[in-house]
Amino acid sequence: MELQTQALHAGYTKDAQGTMAVPIYQTTAYEFRDVEHAANLFALKELGNIYTRLNNPTTDVFEKRMAAMEGGIAALGTSSGMSAIFYAIANLAQAGENILCASQLYGGTVTLFGHTLKRFGIEARFFDVHNPDAIDSLVDDKTRAIFFETITNPSIDVAPIEALVAKANRYGIITVVDNTVATPVLCRPLELGVDIVVHSASKYTTGQGLAIGGIMVEAAHTAAKLTQNPRYAHFNEPDSSYHGLVYVDVGLPPFSLRARLALLRDIGAVPSPFNSWLFIQGLETLSLRMRQHSQSALEIAQFLEQHPKVKRVNYPLLPSNKNYANASRYLPKGASGLLSFEVDSFETAKRIVDKTALFSLVVNIGDSKSIITHPASTTHQQLNTQELAKAGVAAGMIRLSVGLEATQDLIDDLVQALKD
Question: Which CATH number fits domain 3-274: 3.30.70.360, 3.40.605.10, 3.40.640.10, 1.20.272.10?
Answer without folding.
Answer: 3.40.640.10
